[in-house]
Amino acid sequence: MKLSKKMQSAQLMERTAGLFKCPICSTGMEMVEQAKLVCENMHSFDLAKSGYVNLAPQAHTTKYDKSLFEARTKVMASGFFKPVLDKLSSLVNDHLDESDESVLLDAGCGEGTHLKAIHSRLSMETVGIGIGIDLAKEGIAAASKAYPGFIWSVADLAAMPFQDDAVDVILNVLSPANYAEFNRLLKQGGIVVKVVPESGYLQELREAFYNGKQQKEETDPVERFSEHFDDVKSERVTYMFTLPDGLLAPLIRMTPLTWGASEERVREVQQEGMKGISIDLRVIVGVSR
Ligand SMILES: C[S@@+](CC[C@H](N)C(=O)[O-])C[C@H]1O[C@@H](n2cnc3c(N)ncnc32)[C@H](O)[C@@H]1O
Ligand SMILES: [Zn+2]
């Protein structure tokens, strides 16, 4: 008989329970009755039917809702990020080459597509435990439905419900970061692989909605990153992605860039159409301190 998603996830969390810590009192956790994670002080966190666990200390509502994550999944399924994901997988693979039960954690994983894509590209020897966390419950719910076999948790990346020195690689793609927390979580010699937007990222959308105007980043992300990690390397990944039919609407929907735009302008831009869209990202890698 095929195991339910919840059961599959409970077994995985039972095997990896030593990684978790209680988000309320920081004591260790164990899987009880294949249904909930319980800490030494009896704080208890039920697994959802699809297998994820909510370990956020309080409920959060975010602007990232179900339709946004559906749009994001559709866009990502088109190969939109393929060159970036190839780059990220090769960096992760190189790092994990000699580990056996390695732990890969995506901090701010959204609907989980990137973690799944990168994990499935790892070589057989390095395939280990994949953990995706995000504060948006809708993202984690979607991830757990689509990709069993991973640990999916609603959690705050600034206070992650995991033990010190537990993780080999932290991915952090277009999401906020907390470098002190990343360093706490990483094993000695572990790495962070971060992706930040560069000036040309989705510039056609910015032109359509804001005449190309863009908020200026106050600090250089590589500089800030370098204050927390050693051996920092960074590389810009730039290409033009040809938009297939039907992809412009979900693309507009998925990005925070267009949240301020009027419905009318969204309709106009969709009617005008768009042939291609610029991808311009920076991949930054550094070693834990
Ligand atoms: C632009 S999305 C990127 C999602 C995904 N990494 C991707 O590239 O498709 C930013 C994500 O960061 C998440 N996020 C923001 N603040 C967070 C926090 N404090 N803890 C965990 N996730 C957070 C949001 O919920 C959202 O899913
Ligand atoms: Zn507790």
UniProtKB/TrEMBL annotation:
Q: Where does S-adenosyl-L-methionine bind?
A: 81, 111-112, 201
Keywords, comma-separated and alphabetical? Metal-binding, S-adenosyl-L-methionine, Zinc
The residues covered by the 23S rRNA (guanine(745)-N(1))-methyltransferase N-terminal domain are: 20-58
A molecular function (GO) held by this record is:
metal ion binding
User: Where, by residue number, does Zn(2+) bind?
Assistant: 22, 25, 39, 43
Signal sequence span is none
Segments forming domain Methyltransferase = 105-190
Protein name in the entry = Uncharacterized protein
Source species of the chain: Sporosarcina luteola
